[in-house]
Design a protein that fits this description.
By secondary structure, the chain is mainly α. Helices cover 75% and strands 0% of the residues.
């Protein structure tokens, strides 16, 4: 099984995932809208702060918006496609990790392939890109040719941040002593599992 086989298999995983998302369009729209509202609240908070003060440690509102937008867009771009490390605990807790082990494809590839897109972060990414656009327009900087290399490099470096988490999945091996530290919001969301016994 070479690279061509895995590329075709990933494309099939991707196609099936998009097909499943298309069945629940309203849910998809609500998830994206919720992410936009959450990041919009952070932007509103910045606006309120800068409504009172003209600069913060020498940074103007638009300069902070540019930095925030680059951070958000790059960070969530990687999370859209590489969110597998966060769902590993669910596979282990529900016993589905065993299913990944008996298939002829490596478990990490299946883990990435079974959820190739995390729709939760699409809205966050769009807010980041929009914030960068608004900040650049408000700063009224003359266009520089090096931006064509810089902005994709920043997005790519931010997108690669989840890779150490995914690599941690490989280091996990096939052990089942996976411990997940979580807050009360996660425990409250699992009450129905506890009730079932």
């Amino acid at each position: 099984m070479g690279a061509r086989y895995y590329a075709k298999l990933y494309a099939e995983y991707f196609r099936l995932h998009l097909k499943a998302l298309a069945q629940f369009r309203a849910d998809l729209a609500l998830v994206i809208a919720g992410a936009v509202v959450r990041d919009g609240a952070a932007l509103l908070f910045l606006g309120i702060i800068f409504g009172r003060i003209p600069a913060l440690a020498g940074w103007s509102l638009n300069e902070l918006l540019l930095a925030y937008g680059l951070l958000v867009a790059g960070g969530y771009l990687g999370s859209i496609f590489l969110n597998s490390a966060h769902i590993l605990s669910w596979y282990v807790q529900t016993g589905r990790y065993d299913v990944l082990l008996i298939r002829p494809v490596p478990p990490l590839f299946q883990l990435i392939g079974e959820q190739p897109i995390n729709i939760t972060f699409i809205g966050n990414f769009l807010v980041g890109v929009g914030t960068v656009g608004v900040a650049l327009a408000r700063l009224a900087l003359p266009f520089q040719g090096w931006w064509l290399l810089y902005f994709p490099a920043v997005l790519l470096s931010g997108a690669l941040q989840p890779i150490p988490k995914v690599a941690g999945v490989v280091n996990l091996g096939h052990g089942y002593a996976y411990r997940r530290d979580c807050g009360t919001h996660h425990a409250a969301g699992r009450v129905d599992d506890l009730a079932r016994g």
